[in-house]
Design goal:
436 residues, alpha/beta, FAD/NAD(P)-binding domain, eight-stranded mixed sheet, six-stranded mixed sheet, 22 strands, 30% strand, globular
């Protein structure tokens, strides 16, 4: 039997009497975007789900903007559409029609135009708080999902026959499978003894929203600067009709700390130096936020009756904006395996199913994580020979329609062994199982 008892300083039991055990098919720890999407996807296919989240949802709902945005790929929006979660109006999702990639002041660039692949946008930019609120509203209306928050685990037992959790209010929940969607500092991963490769980039992402005079034309810009990438991401106009963009500005830790201490006037001057004048005058909307950047990749994704999802398994540099998308690919793959097993009357927490999930997702995640890590190292410097080589590379890809379309399909999440939900398809349980 595998057993975990959380630290009393993190999870002090509340003085209540133990309750009757409730049953669920799947117990999800972590009520963020990955956890709620997993709950919605699995519930959409008839499974009974319990989500446990430590944060108070009312506080999260009222917290509002934290500066962060997510770039949802075309495949991720297809997943959300397939499970009834996608609502572009409620998300206030701004489509990305073009992407322009430049290397500092170099004259060469790489341009992705969505029209090369059809009419669909390359992706959508969504503010984190809007995504959370919309997802929470959706799963709150699902009969077969229980969202328990604020709540934490006092004791978790997992063995060949199932999992059993005791929460801090005395509630007891039994399930066939536990999903760890509790982020890069996952207590469940650590308690299961799953180690991870980690390193610090010594970089900080400064995030903020700006208003500008000219419309952005739904173009996302990625500028590679010596200190790190500088992204300009399109947002919808606000209620006052102001054109807006989200900024993800990567700097070395020391300079980032100094920038955050600048007055608004001085900070705006530094921002304009990097942003340029192509959208007219800039005005900062709201406050500045900062987030440290690091790398994490778990040495395995599963344990007895346990699967790691999203940042609990892999946390990458935001240079390509793919962090959440890779978590949603985890969700789609595991959902397909679970629904197939459930349809066949098989154990949805069986080790062979979890092993298949591990094989399916590890290669895809590993490749992208080391690509993003390599891109950050390649472009976050000002070494002349390296700069010349990478500019030649950008120009070569831009001149090759075949390569350009391949990279665009990768950005849209349409390459590789893609789960059915990411193609916007219903899970076909009549086809031969993926299981060897």
């Amino acid at each position: 039997m595998t057993k975990w008892r959380s630290s009393p300083t993190l999870c002090k039991p509340k003085p209540r009497q133990p309750m009757t055990e409730r049953r669920a098919d799947i117990l999800i720890f972590g009520g963020g975007a990955n956890g709620m999407t997993a709950a919605a996807a699995l519930a959409h296919h008839g499974l009974k789900i319990v989500v446990v989240e430590q944060a108070d949802p009312e506080k999260l709902r009222k917290a509002g903007a934290d500066g962060r945005t997510v770039a949802l790929s075309h495949a991720s929006t297809s997943l959300m559409q397939a499970i009834g979660l996608w609502n572009a109006d409620e998300f206030d999702a701004c489509p990305i029609l073009d992407i322009r990639i430049t290397d500092g002041a170099a004259p060469v660039f790489l341009h992705y135009d969505h029209r090369e692949l059809g009419d669909a946008p390359l992706g959508h930019i969504v503010e984190n708080w809007r995504l959370w609120n919309a997802a929470f509203s959706h799963i709150s209306g699902l009969e077969n999902v229980s969202y328990l928050a604020p709540s934490a685990v006092v004791d978790l037992q997992r063995d060949d026959y199932g999992a059993r959790a005791i929460l801090d209010d005395g509630s007891i929940i039994g399930a066939s499978l536990v999903l760890a969607c509790d982020g890069r500092n996952s207590h469940l991963r650590q308690a299961a003894g799953i180690t991870a490769a980690t390193w610090d980039y010594h970089q900080t992402a400064i995030v903020l929203t700006v208003a500008h005079d000219e419309p952005h034309a739904n173009i996302a810009h990625e500028r590679f600067l010596p200190a790190g990438p500088f992204a300009i991401l399109p947002l919808h106009d606000d209620a006052k009709g102001r054109h807006r963009s989200s900024i993800v500005w990567t700097e070395q830790n020391e300079l980032a700390a100094a920038l955050l201490e600048f007055t608004d006037t001085r900070f705006n001057e530094e921002l304009e130096r990097r942003f340029g004048s192509f959208l007219g005058n800039l005005k900062i909307v709201g406050r500045r936020w900062s987030y440290p950047l690091s790398f994490l990749h778990a040495h395995r994704y599963t344990d007895t009756r346990l699967a790691l999802i999203g940042d609990a398994a892999h946390a990458m540099h935001p240079i390509a904006g793919q962090g959440l998308n890779m978590g949603l690919r985890d969700v789609a793959a595991l959902t397909e395996l679970i629904v197939d097993a459930h349809h066949r009357g098989q154990d949805i927490g069986d080790n062979s199913l979890l092993s298949q999930y591990e094989r399916w997702r590890r290669t895809d995640n590993t490749v992208l994580m080391f690509v993003t890590d390599g891109l950050n190292r390649l472009f976050s410097n000002n070494v002349a020979p390296v700069r010349a080589a990478r500019d030649l590379g950008l120009a070569a890809v831009n001149r090759s329609p075949r390569l350009r379309r391949l990279f665009m399909r990768h950005a849209m999440g349409l390459e590789g062994d893609i789960p059915q939900l990411l193609r916007g398809e219903a899970i076909d349980t009549s086809r031969q199982s993926r299981r060897p």
